[in-house]
Design brief:
Elements lengths: L2 E4 L10 E4 L3 E5 L5 E8 L15 H13 L3 H11 L14 E8 L5 E9 L4 E8 L2 E10 L4 E8 L5 E8 L6 E6 L2 E7 L6 E11 L2 E5 L2 E7 L1 E10 L6 H13 L3 H16 L3 E4 L10 H9 L6 H17 L25 E2 L3 H5 L1 H5 L3 H26 L9 E2 L12 H4 L4 H16 L2 H21 L1 E3 L2 E3 L10 E2 L5 E2 L6 H20 L5 H11 L20 E2 L25 H16 L6 H13 L3 H14 L15 H14 E3 L3 E4 L10 E8 L3 E8 L2 E9 L3 E7 L2 E7 L4 E2 L4
Parallel strand pairs: 26-30
Antiparallel strand pairs: 1-6, 2-3, 3-4, 4-5, 5-10, 6-7, 7-8, 8-9, 9-16, 10-15, 11-12, 12-13, 13-16, 14-15, 17-27, 18-19, 20-21, 22-23, 22-24, 25-26, 27-28, 28-29, 29-32, 30-31
Helix pairs in contact: 1-2, 5-17, 6-18, 9-11, 9-12, 11-12, 11-13, 12-13, 13-14, 16-17, 16-18, 17-18
Length: about 725
């Protein structure tokens, strides 16, 4: 049994528990007398798409490059703010949809036996309490199958359920309307030129009565009640009121048991594919999650927290990224604010990508698809940005985007805003999906998009001392110090740029070979690939971050961009590039010695990096720090404030501590910590299209079962053993290692 549970209601949003069905999300506080459920819908973004490309970019690009190459960094940065920034500077923000407040009547008496929990095994939230002598219970889930949130309210005694239900929004809505005696609707719009939104709640009452008075839905003296909620916008629904009414009507024709069964079946089809177990952790399950988190804050992270964190990450990805939904944003889907931190957008210089690190390895490929649909929508905007700003072919995106796939520069912040690698990095996810699934039809769709991203750089790159380099460039979001003492962020040919392009160009060439495409563009990509700057080792023994071996303004900076080649890429590996792997380790040591890993997502990245260095002790040490220092009471990742990328990065890291793969080999238990002495994991996926299940005892592998979904030829690696395997689709093998 895997669950989060508490013996007190949530006193803050950060203690509430999340549910979701991909496009809708809710945070449940679990209060007895007056329940609050904060609501989200993934397309509630303010405003419409605005063309923001700076018309002065192209005429100033040559001057900016001259200034950078001549070392006049402050002058270059000033001109970039004027000439390259989007007009206006900001993209659109994601917003909270609103709240559902349920004010219960007749709840006098002492409250005892209180418990609220979120079952990760079936994605159902429950709250139960005894009020006086009467037991009350509420079960809540957000169904993908029936596209509704279902709240089941029951009582031990008949005719004891009475309440008023109210839909509200902090601001910016137009009306609350009675649709029938058991249904109300709140409706509004998202600014000039923006889309309309609506949310509805319907009461299915057993016994008692239901009516609407003003904006309140009122239930009196019922035996049991099922509340059905749905919401949407004109981003998806053409006739908003009609379409949402139909969703509620269809759901109301089913019994509560049917709705629950449909929901659990749909959810388990994804969640149950993977199962992670560690021996000896059952004893911790009697402690509330709040108690376990308090122990963690004191430095006492129980080993069962790793399983809980892993299961929770998979749960969250299923809850906020399903086929047909928008991809997970900075907060997944769960945002309480009208003006959230960083607008709760898609930050594509690490955060959005990290959200999807667990998707393939954790057997949730379908949850990756919203990102691919989103990339497709970005392409036309990115093509225009490439042409207007840089006079380049192909498509480009900078460090941030929004629901509309805006690709122009966001903000006036030199260390990040003018980075041009966003689309390139996103496109590597398409190749990763193909490597894991061997889905040829998907590759046919993705290939032209990957090439469009590559095409931009064939035009954008400039020659410098025989190399092709990006210019302008930054290493997100870091700042260097010149020998003169001048500080700068803008540069040319930053290491991360070269590593991302090495992946993108290589992947384009591999895809072309698979799809039997042989043309001049292939030759151009191959020539450009050969002229990229190699990853280099600097004077301190670490990986060089910039073209020159500068000192850093913040030696403990949260970004470790120059280690992209170690993770998420595999350009640096323990078995193929040991010198670079040692330098990557030195980079991490220097970062951490200066206070690195102080944000949740950064710590999650560090765990992945140590996992790729096959260092279970350091990976687990940083996992403990992620849980103890950067995790909220409800186990959301704490940047601070809340960002969901740390949850997903941590989940991926746990998987990578147990299994790693490339097209050439599968590495078993590469970073197993001693504390996970005995355990098992089943259902993880590996490159080449196969599922893997393993068991270990006393930190030694005891069982490995590999099942091929496609024809598979690879090597299995465990410690100093290495064996070749070849399987046909559907074949299963239990090799002796």
């Amino acid at each position: 049994m895997s669950r989060l549970w508490y013996d007190k209601p949530a006193n803050s949003w950060e203690e509430a528990l999340p549910i979701g069905n991909g496009r809708m999300g809710a945070m449940i506080f679990g209060k007895v007398n007056t329940e609050r459920i904060q609501l989200n819908e993934d397309s509630v973004w303010y405003g419409a798409y605005v063309e923001r490309n700076n018309p002065h970019a192209l005429r100033n690009l040559s001057k900016i490059r001259e200034l950078i190459l001549s070392g006049q960094i402050p002058e270059a940065e000033e001109l970039m703010i004027y000439a390259l920034s989007g007009i206006p500077q900001s993209q659109r923000p994601y917003q909270s949809l609103g709240d559902l407040t349920i004010d219960f009547k007749g709840m006098e008496g002492d409250i005892s036996g209180y418990k609220r929990s979120l079952s990760l095994d079936d994605a159902v939230h429950s709250m139960e309490a005894i009020v006086g002598n009467n037991p009350f219970k509420r079960e809540t889930f957000l169904s993908k199958a029936d596209d509704v949130m279902v709240i089941r309210i029951t009582s031990g005694e008949k005719q004891r359920i009475s309440f008023s239900a109210l839909l509200t929004r902090e601001r910016f809505y137009d009306s609350v309307t009675e649709l029938s005696e058991d249904t109300i609707m709140l409706r509004g719009n998202l600014g000039k030129g923006g889309i309309d939104f609506a949310m509805m709640v319907k009461a299915v009452v057993e016994g008692g009565s239901c009516e609407v008075i003003g904006e309140h839905l009122i239930v009196k003296n019922a035996d049991a009640v099922t509340l059905l909620f749905t919401a949407g916008t004109t981003f998806r629904f053409e006739d908003l009121e009609k379409d949402l009414r139909k969703v509620l009507s269809t759901a109301s024709e089913k019994s509560y048991d049917q709705l629950k069964q449909n929901h659990i079946k749909d959810y388990k089809a994804l969640y149950s594919r993977v199962e992670f177990n560690l021996d000896g952790i059952e004893k911790y399950e009697s402690l509330t999650t709040a108690e376990r988190m308090k122990n963690a804050e004191k430095g006492q992270v129980d080993k069962g927290m790793a399983k809980l964190y892993f299961d929770y990450g998979r749960y969250l990805l299923i809850a906020c990224s399903r086929e047909g939904s928008l991809p997970a944003n900075l907060q997944g889907i769960w945002n309480k604010d009208m003006t959230p931190p960083w607008d709760s957008k898609y930050t594509i210089n690490i955060n959005a990508q990290m959200n999807y690190w667990p998707a393939e390895i954790c057997n949730l490929s379908e949850c990756h698809r919203p990102l691919f649909d989103f990339i497709k929508r970005m392409v036309p905007n990115g093509q225009k940005t490439a042409k207007v700003m840089y006079d380049c072919r192909g498509f480009v995106a900078h460090h941030n985007t929004d629901m509309w796939g805006d690709t122009a520069v966001q903000d006036h912040w030199i260390p990040s805003s003018y980075w041009v690698m966003g689309a390139a990095w996103l496109c590597t996810h398409q190749w990763t999906h193909y490597e894991y699934t061997k889905d040829l039809e998907f590759l046919k769709e993705a290939f032209p998009i990957m090439r469009e991203a590559a095409l931009f750089f064939l035009d954008f790159l400039i020659d410098h001392n025989g190399y092709l380099v990006t210019c302008p460039s930054v290493s997100p979001e870091n700042t260097y110090i010149l020998p003169t003492g001048v500080q700068g962020a803008v540069t040319f040919g930053a290491t991360m740029d070269n590593q991302i392009l090495r992946d993108l160009f290589t992947q384009c060439l591999k895809a072309a070979e698979i799809l039997e495409v042989d043309d001049e563009l292939n030759n151009e990509i191959k020539k450009a690939l050969d002229k990229l700057i190699p990853t280099r080792i600097g004077k301190r023994g670490g990986i060089m971050e910039w073209m020159e071996d500068y000192d850093e303004l913040e030696p403990g900076h949260r970004h470790v961009s120059h280690l992209y080649g170690l993770h998420p890429s595999s350009q640096i590996t323990m078995d193929d590039t040991p010198d670079l792997a040692r330098a990557a380790r030195r980079t991490l040591e220097l970062r951490l010695a200066s206070g690195g890993g102080h944000t949740g997502w950064s710590r999650a990245w560090i765990i992945n990096l140590y996992a790729k260095l096959w260092d279970g002790a350091e990976a687990y040490k940083n996992l403990e720090l992620l849980i103890s220092k950067s995790t909220l009471t409800n186990m959301f990742d704490n940047h601070p404030p809340f960002q969901i990328d740390g949850n997903f990065g941590g989940t991926a890291a746990i998987a990578k501590m147990l299994v790693q793969s490339s097209p050439e080999r599968i590495v078993l238990l590469p970073a197993l910590p001693n504390i996970w002495k005995d355990g098992s994991i089943k259902g993880l996926c590996v490159r080449g299209g196969a599922e893997l299940s393993i068991k270990w005892a006393n930190c030694q592998l005891t069982t490995c079962i590999i099942k091929a979904k496609h024809r598979l030829q690879t090597e299995l690696v465990y410690k100093d053993k290495r064996i070749k395997i070849a399987l046909e689709a559907g074949e299963e093998l239990q090799p002796l290692l």
